[in-house]
Amino acid sequence: MIRPSRSLPFCLVALSLVTAASSGSGGVAHSDASPPSGQRPGPPSDNAERPVTFDRDIAPIVFHDCANCHHAGEASPFTLLTYDDVKSHARQIAAVVRKRQMPPWLPEEGELKFADELRLTDRQISLFQEWIDDGEKEGDAADLPTRPNFVEGWQLGKPDLILTAEKPYLLPAGGDDNYWNFIFRAPVDRVRWLKAMEIRAGDKKLIHHANVLVDRTQSVRHLEKEAGAGFGGMELEIESESFDPDSHFLFWKPGTVPYVEPDGMALRLDKDTDLVLNTHMQPSGKAEKVQPTIGLYFTDVPASIFPMLLQLENDRALDIPAGAKDFVVTDDFTLPVDVDLLAIYPHAHYLGKDLLGYATLPDGSTKTLIHIPQWDLNWQAVFRYTAPVRLPKGTTVAMKYTYDNSEDNIANPNHPPQRVMAGNRARDEMAHLWLQVIPLKASESDPDPRKTLLEAFARHRVAKNPADFEAHYNLAAMLQARGQLDDAIAEYSRAVELHPNDATANNSLGGALLATGDSGEAIAHFNLALKMRPDYFDAHYNLGNALIATNDFHGAIEQFRAAVRLHPDDADAEANLGGALGETGQYAEAKTHLERALEINPNHVLARENLEQLKQLMPAK
Amino acid sequence: MRRGHLKFKLIVAVLALSLAILIPAYSWCRSSSETALDLSGKAVNPLKAAAGKVVILIFVRTDCPISNRYAPTIQRIIAEYSGKSVFWLVYPDKAETPEAIRKHDGEYGYKIGALRDTQHSLVKVSQVKITPEVAVFDASERLVYHGRIDNWYVDFGRARSAATTHELDDAIQAALAGKLPSVRVTDAIGCYISDLE
């Protein structure tokens, strides 16, 4: 009567940034009511003798390119909305725009355009100095464009669901940059389609930027010392129970209006999915409590277009000698299908200097996808193209990152410079270039282009780095999903050889072995997984199933009890516990658990069938 | 009529002459030019208030992000040297009210006296241009250092993870030892005081 159901969980480890949707952009935060955009301020053409005035020449630039952030409640330290505001920072503004430090915009101007580019023209820049030289005149109020009218509070109106971090984080007054993660536990009670998300960082002056990661298996909760307290760390590894190629960038930086996904591109949120807010904060000079809020906006239109995130990376090549000024890291990948490139997210830490992403098309021509000649971690962002960039099958996408580990790099966290390798801490380095693409079918009869792309990508990673644990793991998980169990076991075994103590890999290898009937080996790996992570629900559940396969029902009961303790709302665990109890003749308790399974999921077929059998057995007793 | 004009010219010449005589006296006896207002509105001369001590003026602004981010460093330095020297926060923005300054100092944990330098007389005597910028006067009221606190910031928006040189510490230690600091002047990074004129 026991038929342990449930496919075995397998995991896709890694993705330091999974899903998300970005405003990606410099964000123009004007209300609809008074768009100050439209005419970009040009030179005061006709009359070179005319003095530069605030109302006519300076205000249009400030309203269009500065005020998004420089208004009350936003991230900037002071407002720039009035003549007095601008006058009291005039020389500072002239200096920062001359150096192109403001408005902050990292990519060099190129053939491909990004949404909401924040880049002043040379003429606009020189106007600030001319204004100062001409005596900072206010000018004629008739010339003053309409002052932008910023929406207070939620930029897209009241969200469908508002989440607040359980406990505030106490940001110290001084010290290094700070990286903190807040977990928003299982915010939805059924499948919802997310079309937009707004992150309200509390005091926006403190949070430089933030990413939201979708954690479908609650895989980072164990990192909290106390539930709801959050945890430190710059980079995250999120596990996924299945391939999750429908990925979005959920990135926030100050001054941005949330990006609303078009119909058909919503992000699926499941019951039990956690959202993890990964923040980069800078101490302000005083101690602060940071308790961010997230607003979720849903749609009834489920996803029908599934973008994917491709990650070019070469962290293994990051071994930067102390003092090296031009350390280069590259990676490239040839696309097995046509794709539309939607957005790009370059990522390095403090040693990054020059970041380049480019494509070599099948005809040999090259296209710069993004070039950041002076990387600054503080202004990192997701950049969305104004129109999708079609890259045909056979195109090679590549990254070339240059690092400066000398004293000349003022952002260098080590004095004197030290050898730096890849890692998750701020003083380690990274070499990542994320591409958000939509894989395209060449014809209707084509197989799923997403799978073709994923497999090619997984094989690329293994080939690039035979000692890369994640690469083997992810390829294994993909092969398992396709039913190629023997190949999957070979790849999982390689992953376990590389990381013998990895709980997830041992659990997955056990799962694949169990699926081929090798319950003895499977049990050994599940036990290893539990030794490493005693509160690992999946491993308890799977070990229970493996023990049933060897007719060790008492052992199985123990494992299912542990699983139910960890996830009291898991219908499968309750059903299997009931089944195992039934096998040992403990009918009354078996009935309780089978009924509980049906209470959680009234459509649980196994629980219903077993309960029917149990009812026939019980009166006979 | 002509004579009248001549007479007027003469008067001007006399005035100019008297000014020429007054100016050296004015700068020689500096006390009248070194006052600012404390938060109750009383005139204070910070160089005279603690005769015989090293005096450090720290020029800040409530809305200057760089001077705000320096608050913990400034407090560390105050804690280290306050027994032997006297520190003042100086606010050169005349638009900043005593209430706003009190609130700001409370939020950032400052416990030292604050002055409003609405006439920029302390700015001039300290030869500072930026917030945050500091001026160190030795026990005989001589300006021995003015400039940055340390080299944490290299430019707007570009800071090292930590400072590697500490000019204010060095200047205070020299002044306390009765010596001249080896570095007398540096350029500070922050908000221009001239934007407040």
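qc> Residues 54-143 of chain A form one domain.
qc> done
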